[in-house]
Design brief:
Largest sheet: 2 strands, antiparallel
CATH architecture: Orthogonal Bundle
Oligomer: single chain
Helix content: over 70%
Radius of gyration: 25 Å
Structural class: mainly alpha
Number of domains: 1
Distance between the termini: 53 Å
Length: about 300
Amino acid sequence: MTEAAAPAPVPGRRTGRRVAALLAAPGALWMTAFLVVPIAMMVYVSFWTQKTFTIEPTLTLQNWGTFFGTSTYLSALWTTVRIWLIVLATTLALGYPVALYIGLFVRNKTVQTILLVVCVVPFWTSFLIRVLAWRPMLGTEGAVNILLMKLGVVSEPVAGLLFTELSVVIGMTQIYVVFMVGPIAFMLSRIEPSLIEAARDLGAGTGRIFRTVILPLSLPGVIVGAIFVSVMVLGEFATAAALSGRKVNMLGNIIVTQVGSLKWAFAAVVGVILTVVMGIVVAGLLRLVDLRKEL
């Protein structure tokens, strides 16, 4: 009889850690080079001394004092947060029912895919075209005012639909609502119909089924959609500039203006503040649901 072959050696814990480190190294290097280093440079430049059209690497707190000591810039910060909250609420209010229909009531995967593709059809056109298309629609002689007058809702054109904060909210909601629909529809499509049937057999009504079964199971999708919408809205500048007639200033608009004026140090200050706000928002949303566990 021949001797049985010896079993292959099992890689030790040290070898496994080495393989894991090698696999993670490219991603870690990429994140360090294109995320950590740029943020660190932005923080460093924010303390440089700003001259008229130049900056000097002399550290100072003057730029930070200018931001927090000027009502215009503090107002832009508050406007950014306020518009973010409103757009987040409107995209959720409009996107959740659509996602509920696609993910829960449509069980055919092909039809679900077609409906989701229909939702992203506007992205086949340029971002600026989608933004600027609202200007003729919201104007005093635009489609919205004509429709309101035809229905008898108003007797004369409403002037406050365009070049106001309302027009900015409308434009952003239309642009970003699809980012709320997709993740929620994905989570809703994973709900087993048997769970809803079991709740109904136990005497739960439609409202209770939604509160105790559907909403909790769809919450990870809501959080993911909220993160997508929050990051994009907080960094916005084009929609606010185009639909408000530059009457609504967000932090993104301040950055664009300062960079155009070659005030790099002050633009870095606003960039750091915007990054901190985004970090707080994302961290707060991630604390609501453990996405690694749910997804």
